[in-house]
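INFO worker-7 received task bundle
INFO bundle size: 2
INFO processing item 0
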Amino acid sequence: MNTKVRLITAAITAALLLSGCNVSVNTTPEPAQEETPAAEPGNESAAAEAETKSEVTAAEDENEPPAGTSVYEDPKSLPEYTYQGDEKYMDVICKYMVDYEKQFTDNGQVKVYIPFNIIVETDESDPDDILVYGSYNVDGFRLLNTTLFTESGSRSFGTFHLKTVADGKYEVTDAELPLVEEECEELFAPIDGLYKKISETYDKEADKARADSIAQYVSANSLNITQWQDFGHKPVAVEGAAPTSDADNIYHYDSPLGYSIDFDLRDVSLNASDDDMFSKIEDIDTGTLMVIKSYTESDPDKAVNTALSDADTDMNVSDITLADFEIGDGIKCRRGDSDVPLDDGRIFRYVCLATPASNGTITLVLTTTIEKDAPGLSADELVEAFNGMLSSFCLPSGE
C-alpha cells in the first residue's frame, strides 16, 4: 500500500476515535473466541464440591495459560462490561452499544467493549416512545500486559427510542445513529439548537466520561489493568489504579506473520491487520512508522524492491543500492534506502530491511516524513529510532 495512503490510514484511525458521528473501526480481522461464563455460587457443601471439581478441572484443562502467565493475558479472562451507575436509561443504552459494536468488530482480538454515553436531553411525553438524545460511544479493547489498547471504536450523535416495560425498567425499540455529520444535523434539525448542544457537550465531557467508564470497569471487576492507550498516543493511567511498571510497559508481540518483537508502549503503538504497522509516539507527528510484511518471494533483494514499490508507487526502485545488514541476534538482512520527493517540498524517506523466513521473506519498511527545508531524520537515524525493537526481532528457531 502506498505510504501516503498509510499515513492517511493512521490519521483516520485516530480521527475516527474522535469524530462526532457514527463510525466503526475494525483493525484486526481474526476469528472470534468464545467467552467462558463464570460458575454460579452455591451452598456451603456444594461450594466445597465445586471447589474440588474446579481444582481437578484446572489441572486437566489444556486451555489454561502456561505457568507464570498472568490470567489477564488469557483471552477468556476479561469479564464483559456491565453498567455500574444509576443514571436513568443508561443501563439498556450501554448494553445496546456493546452489542452494536460487536456486530462489526467481534474478531477475536477485542477482549472487552466499554461504552461511554452522554445523555443530553430526553422527551418522556410518550412512555411507549421515550426519546433520549445524546452522544453514544463505545471502544473495543485488546489487552497488552496491563494496558487496554483500543482496537475499534464508534462515536455517534443520535436518538434512542425506549419503551417502559416495568417500573424503572426500559427496553430499546430503536436507535438512530447516523453515519455522517450531515445526517446528524438532519436528524436533530426539528429541535432548534439540539445538534449544537450535543456537539458542545461531547467536546466538553467526552474525555472524562471515557476515562471514568474505563476506571469503573477496572474497579468493579478488580482487574490488574493500569492504563489504556489509543493508536499513536501515549498510554493514559487508569484513575485509582497502581502505576504501570517498566516491565508491563514492554510488550512481547508474537506476530501471525511469523516473527516476534518487543516494544515499549510508551514509545510505539501497533496496528495489526494484514501486516503490522508500528507508529512512533511523537509530540509533533512526523509520520515515523515501521511496517512489517510477509512475502512469498524468497530472494531478499527482490523483496526489498517489492516492499518499497508497495510502500510508494512513485519510487524508482532501480536506483536503490542494496547492502548487508543485521538485526536481532545476528539475523542477516538486505537493506535498501530511498527518498521520494513530493511536489510540496516534503520528502518521504524509506529504509527497507528484508530477511529470509520459512515461507519466503519478511520485510521491515521504516519511513518518516521530512518537512520542507527541515533536516529530519537521516536514514541511519531512522533505523536508530527503531533500534530497540530491531534488536529484539526474532524468527522461530531454525530459520
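INFO item 0 finished
INFO processing item 1
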Amino acid sequence: MKSYKELYFIPVLLFCLSSCQYWEDEKFVATVPRECNYNIIGISGPPSAEPYVEIQYNKDDGHGNNVLVSKRVSPPFRFGGQKVNILCDSILFISGIGSHHKYRIDGYKLVIHHSYEETDGEYLRIFNHSTDKTLEYFIAGSREMETEFTGCSGFPLIKTMPAVYYKHAPIYYLLFPDKKYTQNVQGDVSDCNDIFYFEGNRCGDLTVEQPWSVDSVMKLYRSEYRNSPDIRLDVESYWSHLGRMTKVVHSGDSYDIPFQSFYGTILPGEELKGNISLPLLATPSIFDDRLDYR
C-alpha cells in the first residue's frame, strides 16, 4: 500500500509539470490603419477610336483617406503602384512557461482586413463596354525591394521583392526599369548561385534598354496560362523559393489567402471586380495576407 506521502507527492508533481509547460500563442492587440502599395494591372484588347474600358480604383489622398479614381481608357493601358489605405489586425507572437498571464513577446504581424467596397483600398472595377471586344488583364506585384544580411554569395539576401518573375526579372522592373534595384542580390538563402542581377542594364537574366509594353508583358502571362513549354512565369511559393505560377496556384497547397487570378479575360459587356482571388495589394509574399513579417 502506498504511503500518505507518496499519494500526496504524485498530484503535486503533476501540478508542477503542468505549470512549467512551455506554450506559444497569438494575441490580438488592435485594428490599425496602414498604407500599402496597390499592385500593377495591365489591360490589353483590340484598338478602338473611342475608349471602351471603364476603370475604377482608389488612391491615397495624402491625408490617410482613399479617394476614388474613375476613367475611361483604351487598351493597352496599365495602372496601379499608388498608395492606398487599409486596415490591419496587429497580432503579437507570445510565449511563456506555465501561466498565460505572464508572457514574452517574440514578434508581431499585421493581418490585412480584405474588403472590396467602393471606399476600400482593394476596390477595383474594370467594365468592358464593348459589344464585340474581349479584354485580357494581368496583375504584377509592385512591392519595393528589401534586403537583409549578406548571403553566402557575398550579395545581400532578398527579404521581399516585387512578385511575378520572368527569367529572374520582376515584371514590375520590366515595365518600370527606372524603378529597378541597382545592386545584385541573392534569392534562395541556401543556394549561393541563386543570383538576381540588377547592376547596369541587367534585370535578372535579361538586358533591359527600355520599358516593356503592356502587350509584351501580356504575351508572357497568356503563354504561362496556356502552359507554354517555352515561356514560364514564376512566383514565390514560400520564402525565397520560386515555382511556376500556374503550378503553384493550382497545386492545392493551403495558403492563408487563395490568390489565383494573375491573368484572365473580360468578355464584352462584362466586368471584373475586386475579390479575394485577385492579389491587389503588394504584400511581402504574393500568397500571404500579412503586410509585415516582423
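INFO item 1 finished
INFO post-check item 1: The longest strand covers residues 22-37.
INFO post-check item 1: The mean pLDDT is 86.
INFO worker-7 idle
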